[in-house]
Amino acid sequence: MSRRTIIIAIGMLSLLAAPLAFADTRDEIREGIRNPTSGDATKETQIIAKTGKDAYGTRQSNKGAGGGAIYGCRSSLDTSAPADPKKSTPCIRVNNLSSGKAFDFQAKTSPVIGILQAGNSIRTPQPKTAPFVTNATAVAVGLNADRVDSLNADEIVTQAATKAVQAVVAAGGAGVLNGVCPTNTVLAGGGCLETAPRGAKNFGDAATECAGSGRRLVPPDVLAGARAMAGIDLGGGEMSADTTVTEGIVGLLNTPAYTTVSDGGGFGNKPLGTSTSFRCITGGS
């Protein structure tokens, strides 16, 4: 066989072997071989690309039911510098060196976009673990707390006030709760003053009636101050909580009496046994 024939034969064998070698490599990629085949890489493996918009340096896609990528690491956290990747190296770091976004997460039909899980079980609360830390303080559209338990701020305040009033009423109107008075009372003198007078009674019966509703007779200074409030009319004089002793001629005929306050600001005295309209008050001093 001539030298020329031998050279041509070797060339043809090389051409035939190349596709077979390429096919073997592709088969290995599909099977998912370990890289490196043994031991551990001790330096970063870099993939450098220069692509345009809507194109990426690498693309990982799984057409089956499995995931697209999984990353694991064993880095630790430096609590004094959690945001410093040199001291607290994350498993994944995305760093946009320009002015665009650093990441996108999208799920087309899933009811859950993703999970931030601390510990081995999502069912175990981790009260000492923050889901994330940020120094961005602008409003996050979609995360701004416009509603809590489906209520906006005004509804929350109204609901709280209503429950406060209900609590006071349930307790027999024992006093003011967070500045809120029960129905048909108004805040006056640190307590909740009834807006309408009760029917005339003597001092003892009036005091007993107020006590029976968890309230008490109104001090005269509170009545005097309340007369200027809208809806409060003391008329010619209402019974107050104060009592005194009126003196007769030369100290004789001393008579126990209660103080009355009129809508015009006048103070008077009436014997304890006489009947006068009155109001009750909760709380106050």
Layout: helices, strands, pairs:
Layout: H1 3-31, H2 153-170, E1 185-188, E2 191-194, E3 198-201, H3 203-212, E4 216-217, H4 220-226, E5 238-246, E6 255-261, E7 267-271, E8 276-278, E9 280-283
Antiparallel strand pairs: 1-2, 2-9, 3-8, 4-9, 5-6, 6-7
Please give a quick description of this structure:
The protein is 22% helix and 15% strand.
Largest sheet: 4 strands, antiparallel
CATH superfamily descriptor of the domain at 188-283: Mannose-Binding Protein A, subunit A
Strands ordered across the widest β-sheet = 1-2-9-4
List the helices and strands in order: HHEEEHEHEEEEE
The rounded Rg comes to 43 Å
Mean pLDDT: 81
Q: Count the helices. How many?
A: 4
Residues in helix, %: 10-25%
Indicate the CATH topology of the domain at 188-283: Mannose-Binding Protein A, Chain A
Unreliable runs: 3-28
Envelope shape: rod-shaped
In the CATH hierarchy, what is the class of the domain at 188-283?
Alpha Beta
Number of strands: 9
Write a structural description.
With 285 residues, this protein is α+β, with helices and mostly antiparallel strands. The protein has a domain at 188-283: Mannose-Binding Protein A, Chain A, CATH 3.10.100. Helices cover 22% and strands 15% of the residues. It has 4 helices and 9 strands, in the order H-H-E-E-E-H-E-H-E-E-E-E-E. The strands form 3 sheets. It has a 4-stranded antiparallel β-sheet with strand order 1-2-9-4. Strands 5-6-7 form a 3-stranded antiparallel β-sheet. A two-stranded antiparallel ribbon has the order 3-8. A hairpin with an 8-residue loop joins strand 5 and strand 6 (255-261). The protein is rod-shaped, with a radius of gyration of 43 Å. Mean pLDDT is 81; it is low at 3-28.
